[in-house]
């Protein structure tokens, strides 16, 4: 990733609370995305929290993307937004049963059949 002006973090970035086995082993990130997060994540976190000030145009654009995620254009910005959504967003939960109740018309069809049965 030498084609970027973005600063490397002072230390490697890990999130042991949400991704204790690592970013790539979580199944949510590719190996390339994991490398971006570990190399640049410390700087991106500092820019997001305000601890660091942007030093170049790429970092200034990153700060703007934090306010307006639709403007993300670089891989670093998209990976950070993905990380924020997965780490801080709501976890999706899929069940096998639905929430909807059967509509009344399908229930009425069966109740009509029961009325046709003669009692002895």
Account of the protein in words:
- By secondary structure, the chain is mostly helical.
- It has a domain at 23-88.
- It is built from 4 helices and no strands.
- It has helices at 31-49, 57-67, 75-88, 104-115.
- Helix 1 packs across helix 3 (75-88).
- The longest helix is centred in the middle third of the chain and has 19 residues, at 31-49.
- The relative contact order is 0.13.
- The mean pLDDT is 80.
- Belongs to the MaoP family.
- Residues 109-120 have a biased composition (Acidic residues).
- InterPro entries: DUF413 (IPR007335).
- Roughly how much helix do the residues carry, as a percent range? 40-55%
Q: What overall geometry do the principal axes of the alpha carbons give?
A: globular
Biggest β-sheet, characterized? none
Question: Class by helix and strand content?
Answer: mainly alpha
- Count the strands? 0
Q: How confident overall, as mean pLDDT?
A: 80
* Residues in β-strands, percent: under 5%
For the CA atoms, what is the radius of gyration? 25 Å
Succession of helices and strands: HHHH
Calculate the terminal CA-CA distance, rounded to whole Å. 84 Å
Low-confidence stretches: none
Helix count equals 4
Pfam family, one: DUF413
InterPro entries: DUF413 (IPR007335)
Region (Disordered): 97-120
Organism: Vibrio brasiliensis LMG 20546
Short description:
The chain is mostly helical. The protein contains 4 helices and no strands. The chain has helices spanning 31-49, 57-67, 75-88, 104-115.
Secondary-structure blueprint of this entry?
Elements: H1 31-49, H2 57-67, H3 75-88, H4 104-115
């Amino acid at each position: 990733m030498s084609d970027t002006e973005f600063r490397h973090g002072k230390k490697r970035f890990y999130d042991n609370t949400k991704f204790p086995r690592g970013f790539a082993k979580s199944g949510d990130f590719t190996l390339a995305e994991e490398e971006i997060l570990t190399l640049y994540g410390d700087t991106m976190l500092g820019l997001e929290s305000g601890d660091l000030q942007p030093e170049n145009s790429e970092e200034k654009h990153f700060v703007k993307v934090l306010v307006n995620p639709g403007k993300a254009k670089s891989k670093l910005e998209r990976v950070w937004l993905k990380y924020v959504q997965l780490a801080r967003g709501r976890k999706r939960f899929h069940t096998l049963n639905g929430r909807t109740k059967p509509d009344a018309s399908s229930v009425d069809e069966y109740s009509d059949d029961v009325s046709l049965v003669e009692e002895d």
